[in-house]
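Here is a typical sample entry:
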Amino acid sequence: MTSTEQTLSTTAGGGTDRRRWFALAIVMTAAFMDLVDVTIVNIAIPSIQREEGASFSQIQWITAGYALAFAAGLITGGRLGDIHGRKRIFLVGIGGFTVASALCGLAVNPEMLVAARFLQGGMAALMVPQVLSIVHATFPAHERGKVFGLFGAVVGLGAVSGPLLGALLTEWNLFGWGWRSIFLINLPVGVAGLILGGRFITESKAPRALKLDLVGVALVTLGLLMLLYPLIRGRELGWPVWGYGSMAGALVVLAALVAYERRKSARDGSPLVELSLFRVKSFAAGIAVQTVFGVGLGVFFLVWTLYMQVGLGWSPLKAGLTGVPFSIAVSVAAGMSVQKLVPRFGRKVLQAGALVMAAGVLLYVWESAHYGLAVTPWQMALPLVVMGVGMGLIVAPLTDAILSEVPREHAGSASGLINTVQQMGNALGLGLVSVVFFGTISEHLRPDQVGPAFADAFRNALGWVAVVMVAIFLLMFALPKRPAQHVEGEQAPAAQQEPALV
């Protein structure tokens, strides 16, 4: 523990004690800003497409670009904080995130917006990993439970308020900004966080920081881009041969990553990916669950928004309010699963969540077909609540289940990897939207054909999401029946995981 950490851990009362609560409010506000920015964009996507003339592939990149840059930089962002100081990297991250938000809001065309979203995701990768590191370095062990509880509440609030805030800002059209206000609202918050963070957050570093693995980051990013780019652009380009070659080449790049990481681990013990973790059966299966889960959610949330606003012609506010029962169900079920169900029933709770979510998806498919374009938000409430309950049973306890058999010395690396693969899965799911959703929609639709075409594509995409949930159910058999409890501070709590409501 550094002298800074010792000072903060042993201080009771006085100025420093008050300063750390200011620091907590600042880093949690930054975390909230990131969480909201993930969920707020989806609800504004149809408005961006309509007003800026963005193509289907561009609206996919607006969301997938953020997720990809965030995923590729998360582990490196955490290590930069350990090496150069968590406060310093946090301030760089929040400052860069604010600048990127301004560029998003001022984008003059879809290409600029996509580029700014890549930058925003990269800056979030610097900012977000520092949040819990600062909390861990600032608060003594006996207070962290309360602090992590507050962080969980912030995660829940961000997940619920993001779509609503996005809907309201888009609908109100403040200062004539329209969809741009969902990005520009970050500016005053980011500037305040930068100023106050510089004053109240105390610097800390890891006692023994690992070296950076920039080659590993480059290989991960290149492999994912080679896979995602042809998936997203393939439909509008007529699925050219080079696209299939690129996707095949992505597997070669990822194989090269594994070989490089193995050599780097033997050479200096600081690889981007700790490959020895995959010898732990429950961790390997859990990473597969997290990745596949991210794929399913990446598909669902984008096509859901397009279905409501483009297919059904609903306003952003109506679409945002429709999602409230889902968000509430996720929050309630997540709390129950961690506190009451998992301690008693173990892995069965997560498996039940996968099947319940699959049932909700199939119920949604049936309702969409039965009620057609006349379906109402009230009729959607039941399948959304069922889906939310299923998702809540999975998201909260999944991290503990994955980490339960991981050696203690690798708990930090494992937590970072869980976050990373979730975001990578999400980016891959957003790429697959071209295949399972846009792939069923004709290039040229008359106005009277748009609604039926988007509704059919929505049902097709949800069918694949249901398949994903069944696959997750089967993968979960490799998780431990009853996850072991870790000592506090040895792993990131479930609240650290980037929320799946993206």
Notes: The radius of gyration is 22 Å. The CA atoms of residues 326 and 384 lie 5 Å apart. DSSP finds 17 helices and no strands in the chain.
